[in-house]
User: Which sequence fits this backbone?
């Protein structure tokens, strides 16, 4: 009986990986264009040009959700920081300066989120929802309805010179974030605060600091993703991040991170975003329209949460 | 009160067995509850008292055995079934809707209806019914229209009692109803319980407070490790015998305090004022246990939370080991760095991270000290946790066990382990043994004694009179946010009257 339970726990633990594999096999068999060994283009494209963005944003969103919060501003901070970066690039032609400015803008708005939550005492929903409007507004004002394209210098080369550069960056950042969250005292304190911030404070955790640093990291990740995104696209405009926050939330939920706080991992964020992108792309190859894809994502989220409940109950007994 | 005639049986419990995944919670338990008696069930945590009661009131299904209520087979599928039969339970945990009124909570689901078609609630009738109920309970200082969140924990517990009593019961089960009540409310509850009994209602009463069962009970059933040990008439068994049967061994002495010669001053507080306390002066020396007595709501917990930096301080001075600390920006982090520790009254809400394993909780406050590089070494974490689990005899299958799965006594030991791990010299215990069974209590007292011997300073808030009388070098008594007096075990004999007189009237007892 104990062995049976152990098996069940393992099954639950790796259920997301299995879902991913099964989905992958399903689309491989039932479509001609999704994946075959003679034609790997589609898969290469998915992993080089779609997965990295969602992966990084989901990691950021996972951090916020572990802290029993959320970051609704992730998409618009991404848009604003990439627009500012593009403006700097256009004005100076200096790629390094452009990258640094972009990252600084993103980190700054993350910092503001953190301050609003910890020092002003706003709930994460309210704080990041306001910042969403504010950053979006600034981006629109700055670009005044125009687009920036034809980037000067080697900016695009830096990110797209090798086909897999974006994936590599995402992979390295994931590794760092995994290390930070699971091996360091900082990561431990993030989980502790997410679980019970009052008990954390009484145990000597600098709770305000945890919020501020974490949301700054989220802002940094958003702006990094933004830079990668405009380099890949070759253009910057304020509307680019509109659906990103909701997509990142979806991927995080699919990965098995619950909204209760204190739980979740970098790995779940990665597998969640891979499942989500495989699903949408696979359905596209089966000829299912984008409206039905949205429907499917909703179903997968519900299914995923039910799965998570089951495993939580199992681990509790 | 002599009632010699043997009353007829109301509920017959036969060979009940209940298994949770891998754990036998109830093993072949049989007993009978008579009509119109107060039947006390005692046992250590995990003895199966609550499980048995939850089966009777339809919360858990049983694995095997029979229940027979008024001679008829009784198989409740849920709480409603039990209520229809006439069985109600007052739970240990508070299950109230925080943002609703007292009346709305008491009549939830059974609100009086003023219009049959629209099912509109007759608020006037509900509130007046509620008022009458509260008055009959002697708690008319609680208004039907007050919001639950504005009530103290003790008041909330009384609302819970009122809710259970608003239903017509043949059998009323009370699971530790007094754990956070004040003396007066306990008296009210007992008066009511006796009245119910005289009206023919049977009461099953679970409590950890030994003197209560002698006061209120007619018969007592003792359980241990899921087994039925025996039922006795109160008056035919002594407290010591009950305790021995409960723990299965003899506890020689619950309080075994050795008084030490006090050392240097650990903490001195001068004219401290905060939201719920004023002009507090107190001091603690190494090797002392200083008790803080008083009634619930006297401001003791708030005072200690402020001294520890968790709540704000308005004015006054704190000296920690001779050094003045800046009360501006004073926080738990600095207090811990100053070698302080606080074991809060609200163990689950403030003391522990319930859904994390024992090992994470043990090292939580020592992370910075243990891992200077900021990287957690698993081996060190495991070894430290193992060490404290052994040292404090925490009963658990492994250090990976989630704290929420531990019993109250073991949870308290984990909180203590967390602080011992920081090498603290001044420990504040807030109600250290609330909800903890006798066996674990003795162990906690022993540990406190040991700490004092090893030159630590200890402050202990306690509402349990025996605990504070027997363990303290000195006692400060608080009332309405002020310290009303100090009693020293060397100068005066510390008596219950002395403490209670200060706690209730703010004046020293007459014989002083």
Assistant:
């Amino acid at each position: 009986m104990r062995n049976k339970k152990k098996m069940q726990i393992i099954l639950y633990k790796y259920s997301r990986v299995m879902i991913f594999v099964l989905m992958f096999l399903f689309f491989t068999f039932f479509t001609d264009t999704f994946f075959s060994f003679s034609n790997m283009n589609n898969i290469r494209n998915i992993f080089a040009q779609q997965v990295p963005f969602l992966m990084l944003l989901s990691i950021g969103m996972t951090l916020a959700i572990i802290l029993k919060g959320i970051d609704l501003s992730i998409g618009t901070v991404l848009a604003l920081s990439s627009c500012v970066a593009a403006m700097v690039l256009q004005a100076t032609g200096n790629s390094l300066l452009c990258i640094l400015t972009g990252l600084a803008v993103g980190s700054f708005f993350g910092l503001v989120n953190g301050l609003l939550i910890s020092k002003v005492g706003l709930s994460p929903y309210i704080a990041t929802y306001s910042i969403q409007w504010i950053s979006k507004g600034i981006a629109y004002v700055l670009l005044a309805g125009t687009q920036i394209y034809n980037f000067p210098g080697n900016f695009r080369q830096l990110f797209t010179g090798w086909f897999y550069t974006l994936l590599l960056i995402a992979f390295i950042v994931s590794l760092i974030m995994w290390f930070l969250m699971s091996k360091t005292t900082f990561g431990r304190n993030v989980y502790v605060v997410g679980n019970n911030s009052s008990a954390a404070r009484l145990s000597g955790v600098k709770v305000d600091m945890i919020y501020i640093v974490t949301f700054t990291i989220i802002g940094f990740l958003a702006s990094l993703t933004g830079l990668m995104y405009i380099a890949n696209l070759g253009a910057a405009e304020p509307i680019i991040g509109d659906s990103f926050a909701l997509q990142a939330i979806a991927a995080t939920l699919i990965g098995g991170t619950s909204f209760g706080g204190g739980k979740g991992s970098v790995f779940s964020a990665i597998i969640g975003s891979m499942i989500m992108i495989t699903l949408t792309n696979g359905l596209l190859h089966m000829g299912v329209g984008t409206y039905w894809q949205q429907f499917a994502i909703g179903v997968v989220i519900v299914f995923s949460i039910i799965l998570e409940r089951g495993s939580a109950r199992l681990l509790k007994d | 009160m002599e009632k010699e005639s043997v009353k007829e049986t109301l509920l017959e419990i036969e060979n009940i067995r209940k298994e949770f995944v891998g754990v036998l919670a109830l093993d072949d338990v049989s007993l009978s509850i008579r009509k119109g008696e107060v039947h006390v069930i005692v046992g250590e945590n995990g003895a199966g008292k609550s499980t048995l009661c939850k089966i009777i009131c339809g919360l858990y299904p049983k694995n095997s055995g029979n229940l027979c209520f008024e001679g008829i087979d009784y198989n409740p599928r849920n709480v409603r079934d039990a209520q229809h039969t006439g069985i109600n339970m007052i739970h240990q945990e508070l299950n109230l809707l925080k943002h609703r009124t007292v009346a709305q909570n008491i009549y939830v689901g059974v609100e009086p209806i003023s219009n049959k078609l629209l099912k509109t609630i007759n608020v006037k009738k509900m509130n007046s019914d509620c008022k009458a109920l509260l008055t009959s309970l002697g708690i008319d200082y609680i208004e039907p229209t007050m919001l639950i969140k504005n009530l103290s924990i003790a008041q909330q517990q009384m609302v819970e009692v009122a809710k259970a009593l608003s239903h017509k019961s043949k059998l009323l089960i009370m699971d530790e109803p007094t754990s956070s009540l004040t003396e007066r409310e306990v008296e009210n509850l007992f008066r009511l319980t006796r009245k119910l009994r005289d009206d023919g209602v049977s009461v099953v009463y679970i409590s950890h407070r030994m003197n209560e069962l002698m006061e209120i009970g007619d018969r007592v059933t003792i359980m241990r490790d899921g087994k039925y040990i025996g039922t006795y008439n109160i008056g035919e068994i002594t407290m010591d015998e009950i305790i021995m049967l409960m723990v299965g061994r003899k506890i020689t002495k619950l309080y075994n305090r050795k008084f030490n010669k006090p050392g240097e001053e650990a903490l001195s507080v001068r004219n401290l004022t905060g939201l719920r306390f004023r002009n507090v002066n107190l001091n603690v020396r190494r090797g002392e246990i200083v008790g803080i007595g008083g009634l619930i709501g006297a401001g003791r917990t708030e005072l200690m939370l402020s001294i520890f930096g968790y709540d704000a301080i308005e004015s006054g001075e704190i000296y920690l080991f001779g050094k003045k600390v800046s009360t501006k920006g004073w926080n738990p982090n600095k207090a811990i760095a100053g070698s302080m520790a606080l074991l809060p009254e609200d163990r689950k809400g403030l003391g522990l991270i319930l859904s994390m394993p024992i090992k994470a909780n043990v090292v939580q406050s020592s992370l910075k000290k243990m891992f200077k590089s900021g990287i957690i070494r698993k081996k060190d974490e495991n070894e430290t946790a193992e060490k404290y689990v052994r040292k404090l005899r925490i009963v658990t299958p492994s250090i990976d066990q989630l704290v929420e799965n531990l019993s109250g006594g073991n949870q308290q030991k984990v909180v203590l382990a967390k602080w011992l791990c920081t090498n603290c010299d001044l420990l504040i215990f807030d109600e250290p043994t609330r909800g903890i069974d006798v066996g674990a209590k003795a162990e906690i007292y022993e540990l406190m004694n040991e700490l004092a011997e090893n030159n630590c300073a200890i402050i202990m808030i306690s509402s349990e009179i025996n605990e504070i009388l027997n363990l303290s070098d000195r006692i400060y008594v608080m009332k309405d946010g002020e310290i009303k007096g100090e009693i020293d075990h060397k100068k005066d004999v510390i008596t219950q009257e002395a403490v209670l007189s200060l706690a209730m009237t703010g004046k020293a007892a007459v014989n002083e």
Observations:
- The radius of gyration of chain A is 20 Å.
- Chain A touches chain B at residues 1-2, 5, 183-186, 188-189, 191-192, 195-196, 198-206, 262-263, 316-317 (CB under 8 Å).
- Residues 51-242 of chain A form one domain.
